[in-house]
Design brief:
Helix content: 25-40%
Radius of gyration: 19 Å
Strand content: 25-35%
Oligomer: single chain
Distance between the termini: 23 Å
Low-confidence stretches: none
CATH topology of the largest domain: Tumour Suppressor Smad4
Order of helices and strands: EHEHEHEHHEEEHHEEEEHEEEEE
CATH architecture of the largest domain: Sandwich
């Protein structure tokens, strides 16, 4: 028995389209499954928990949506040790990128999920909450806060509007960063604690981060001028920003960040700092190519 969790609104309706394709695939293969529904994150967690309590030997959970949908599902599957496959249908899809899957070849992805063994990957953990890609604080979190407050425009454009609003008034903040073997006290514009290599729809904030090494890559962007920030920012899509002298990357299993700021993980609000994130080795069962 498989669980199929579909977020029909992800990716501006792409979730509904991809969800039907996954359902058709399961039907064609004669694989027993149940579609898990819910009108919000809490209901999805509740309904998926009820299903897994009834089917503890579930073959796996297929979640169709973006990183937010996968984030919700992993809160249920990870403690239970149930395999979770993330089917990309959102605007970011960075968790799927971190696993090494193509975003385009859905049929090949599904074939491998149902015919090959799962593997174990690392996750980050803040309190009782799991995250798969990146926890961040600084300018990007401020932009997220602003974007979440806007009712217009919709989609990715609201983040562009939020950047335009927040960048002129943005100031670097002082952070206390405690790592495994050192403490860094510094002003910074952005800090990213990366389990996977990218966030924000393919921004390679820590291009050498992997989900199987037991460590976070922690990227610290030290203060630069607004003009220099605008020049450096586009380089993050190719990962070449790491050669800039204001960029520092360190590795750690545990990271504590203190500041007057907020943090986001996998695109969801974690809350006000301080936060402590732990890289938990082999926490999640999933599939990799």
């Amino acid at each position: 028995m498989w669980a199929l969790v579909i977020n029909p609104t992800s990716g501006s309706g792409k979730g509904s389209v991809v969800g039907r394709k996954v359902r058709d695939f399961l039907v064609e293969r004669g694989l027993e499954h149940k579609i898990i529904e819910g009108d919000g994150a809490s209901n999805v967690r509740k309904n998926l928990s009820i299903f897994l309590a009834k089917y503890p030997d579930c073959s796996g959970v297929l979640t169709v949506g973006g990183d937010g949908s996968a984030h919700e599902a992993m809160q249920v599957t990870t403690p239970l040790g149930v395999p979770l496959a993330i089917i990309p249908a959102g605007t970011g899809n960075d968790l799927v990128r971190a696993l090494g899957w193509s975003l385009d070849d859905l049929k090949d992805y599904l074939e491998k999920i149902v015919s090959t063994p799962y593997v174990n990957i690392d996750l980050g953990q803040v309190g009782s909450e799991w995250f798969g890609a990146v926890l961040s604080t600084g300018f990007d979190s401020i932009v997220n806060e602003r974007a979440n407050s806007l009712s217009w425009p919709k989609g990715a454009m609201k983040y562009n509007v939020s950047i335009a609003i927040e960048l002129p008034r943005f100031r670097a903040r002082h952070y206390e960063i405690t790592l495994d073997e050192q403490v860094i006290s510094t002003r910074a514009m952005l800090i990213a604690v990366a389990n996977g290599s990218s966030y924000g729809g393919g921004m390679l904030v820590c291009p050498e981060a992997t989900v199987t090494d037991g460590y976070f890559d922690v990227m610290i962007l030290h203060p630069v001028s607004k003009l220099e920030f605008l020049k450096v920012f586009p380089r993050v899509f190719k990962g070449t920003h790491i050669s800039h002298p204001a960029v520092e990357i360190v590795r750690s299993k545990v990271v504590t960040i203190k500041a007057d700021a907020v943090a986001y993980a996998d695109g969801d609000r974690v809350g006000a700092l301080p936060v402590t994130a732990r890289c938990v080795r082999n926490a999640m069962k999933t599939w990799m190519p």
